[in-house]
């Protein structure tokens, strides 16, 4: 008797390109929204609500210290979620990281203040902030892998800009919501325009944190419909999944870890100076102990949002440039421009309101140009079996060296400069020089296959053939 002949196996599901882009974008938008509404509250109300026994400068620095504490938790999250992502897959890990972030952000919205619970309230704020950082440590690399591992050939950098686009979109949504709430809540007659209203300080600040629950629900629905990338599926089917991805990446790819960390350094410092520090500097009164620009909160945030629009546009612009000219070449030129920007931003600010707007526009434009290619470059440094862990560690260790200390150092340098931020600009330029050195020591990754090896020259920019993946 002849054995029954089985028909061809049914094709397994594949991620449509629209689903890939939306899933990588919406998750990072929510994560960055959650992360940066804290940054805004850290400037506006948290010094008064959670550190009231300190003088204004010390309270602000304490609030920034809690902000920076999350950056310390991010590498821990990168290791934890990287292990899950490299062992179990990208989809499940992204769902867990988003859920963790959403719960922590919602709970910040219901925390008691120092007046209600004393230092226990401050401790709870620190705990929730650590949870935010822990979750974000696993979010970015997973979203970048969803985009780049599903990208057609020759368009990895373009696809990699979509998770990066979540940063400006999250900033705009979060600060836009703060603006709307502030506009709807009444202010007392004769109140200081640089300070939030009493109603906003009492309860209005909680609304953006509570609203995150709605956004997280949408994000979870989108991500639950993803299937694993073909690249990871092939790694799993070939038995190349590592039992301990962290040990593998540290032992075999430590040079890439170091280079990736310093390649991200200027990006982190620039972004947190242009968002967190600039909000403090822009709102500080001109006759304060540490003088600033003296703009009202509403006016300056509108100026910032205008600048962030350039951040979003040039994040997308950077992708095709990095695909055409290479990630390393593009970033070398942009990083050199950041060095110059740090040295000239005080003369720009001195030109008045037009100069301040130009300062914000140039800073956020450079931010988009340097941030966009990272979505492709960092994953391309590592093989599939440790890509989630390796790219996540580089990205998030850099957050300690750059973002965790940037607002704190900036305020100290601002105070040292007697109200002039020229030392802050020098600090940015110095960090950009370190990034420039790392880029010069690194190699171009544009033609590196995510399955390993070099892409043949004849195939480097041809459309990718459809691929199948394992099931959800």
Structural summary, described in words:
This protein is mainly α. Helix 7 packs across helix 17 and helix 12 packs across helix 18. It has helices spanning 17-44, 46-50, 56-87, 90-108, 114-117, 119-149, 156-184, 198-204, 206-224, 230-237, 245-252, 254-263, 265-283, 297-325, 327-349, 353-371, 374-380, 387-404, 406-416, 422-441. Helices cover 73% and strands 0% of the residues. The protein is globular. The protein contains 20 helices and no strands. It starts with 16 loop residues before the first helix and ends in a 31-residue tail after the last helix. It has a single domain, classed as Growth Hormone, Chain: A, CATH 1.20.1250. It is found in: Cell membrane.
The string of secondary-structure elements, in order, is HHHHHHHHHHHHHHHHHHHH
CATH structural fold name: Growth Hormone, Chain: A
Number of β-strand runs: 0
Q: Please name the fourth-level CATH homologous superfamily.
A: MFS general substrate transporter like domains
Give the proportion of residues in helices.
over 70%
Give the class-level CATH name.
Mainly Alpha
Number of helices: 20
Most strands sheet: none
Strand content: under 5%
Number of domains: 1
Unreliable spans are 1-12, 453-472
Q: Which whole number gives the mean pLDDT? A: 83
Label the overall shape.
globular
């Amino acid at each position: 008797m002849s054995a029954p002949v089985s028909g061809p196996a049914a094709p397994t599901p594949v991620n449509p390109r629209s689903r890939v882009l939306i899933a990588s974008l919406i998750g990072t938008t929510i994560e960055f929204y959650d992360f940066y509404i804290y940054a805004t509250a850290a400037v506006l109300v948290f010094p008064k609500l959670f550190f009231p026994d300190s003088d204004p400068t010390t309270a602000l620095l304490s609030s920034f210290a809690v902000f920076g504490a999350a950056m310390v938790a991010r590498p821990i999250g990168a290791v934890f979620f990287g292990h899950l992502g490299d062992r179990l897959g990208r989809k499940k890990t992204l769902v867990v990281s988003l859920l963790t972030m959403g719960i922590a952000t919602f709970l910040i919205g219901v925390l008691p203040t120092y007046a209600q619970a004393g230092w226990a309230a401050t401790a709870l704020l620190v705990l929730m902030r650590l949870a935010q950082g822990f979750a974000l440590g696993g979010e970015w690399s997973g979203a970048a892998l969803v985009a780049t591992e599903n990208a057609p050939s020759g368009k990895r950098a373009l696809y990699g800009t979509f998770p990066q686009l979540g940063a400006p979109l999250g900033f705009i949504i979060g600060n836009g919501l703060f603006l709307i709430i502030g506009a709807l809540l009444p202010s007392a007659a004769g109140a200081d325009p640089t300070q939030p209203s009493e109603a906003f300080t009492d309860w209005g600040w909680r609304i953006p944190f509570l609203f995150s629950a709605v956004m997280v629900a949408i994000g979870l629905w989108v991500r639950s419909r993803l299937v694993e990338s073909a690249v990871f599926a092939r790694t799993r089917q070939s038995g190349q999944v590592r039992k301990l991805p962290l040990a593998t990446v540290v032992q075999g790819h430590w040079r890439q870890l170091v280079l990736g960390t310093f390649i991200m350094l200027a990006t982190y410092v620039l972004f947190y100076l242009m968002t967190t520090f600039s909000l403090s500097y822009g709102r500080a009164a001109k006759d304060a102990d540490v003088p600033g620009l003296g703009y009202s909160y509403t006016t300056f945030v509108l100026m910032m949002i205008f600048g962030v629009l350039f951040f979003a546009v040039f994040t997308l612009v950077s992708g095709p440039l990095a695909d055409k000219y290479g990630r390393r070449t593009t970033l070398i030129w942009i990083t050199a421009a950041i060095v110059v920007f740090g040295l000239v931003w005080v003369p720009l600010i001195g030109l008045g309101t037009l100069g301040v707007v130009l300062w914000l526009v140039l800073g956020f434009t450079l931010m988009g140009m340097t941030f966009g290619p990272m979505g492709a470059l960092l994953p391309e440094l590592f093989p599939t079996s440790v890509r989630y862990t390796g790219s996540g560690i580089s990205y998030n260790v850099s957050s300690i060296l750059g973002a965790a200390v940037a607002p704190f150092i900036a305020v100290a340098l601002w105070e040292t400069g007697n109200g002039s931020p020229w030392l802050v600009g020098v600090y940015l330029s110095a960090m950009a020089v370190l990034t420039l050195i790392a880029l010069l020591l690194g190699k171009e990754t544009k033609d590196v296959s995510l399955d390993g090896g070099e892409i043949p020259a004849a195939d480097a920019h041809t459309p990718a053939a459809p691929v199948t993946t394992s099931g959800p």
